[in-house]
Specification:
about 100 residues, alpha+beta, about 35% helix, 4 helices, 3-stranded antiparallel sheet, globular
């Protein structure tokens, strides 16, 4: 079934399911960043970071997914992932309103 509309929760649910199915794959997908040009960097909703080694603009799958939903007033995206402080492993994906950074 093709969906015409997806919610932030739909994206988190799929990512959490993928996390259970193949943790290593999901970890590599969400932690990998690729250099991008100024057009993507200046996009109003795509989340872009900076590579501190060479000062280049970089984007990953989370920045792209967040681009679908827009940005919060503080510039953050709509979805995030929680990382265990001790192990460094991804625990789960959440909507930013409920993510650990806003607790």
């Amino acid at each position: 079934m093709i969906k015409d509309v997806i919610s932030k929760q739909d994206v988190c649910d799929l990512l959490n399911e993928m996390l259970k199915l193949d943790y290593d794959c999901v970890y590599k997908l969400v932690t990998n960043r690729i250099k991008c040009n100024d057009s993507i960097t200046n996009h109003p909703t795509i989340q872009v970071g900076i590579n501190k080694e060479d000062n280049s603009n970089i984007v990953g799958i989370m920045g792209i997914l967040n681009g679908f939903f827009g940005i919060n007033d503080d510039g953050s995206g709509a979805i995030c992932y929680l990382i265990d402080d001790k192990s460094g492993k991804i625990i789960k994906f959440e909507i930013i309103d409920t993510c650990g950074v806003n607790e």
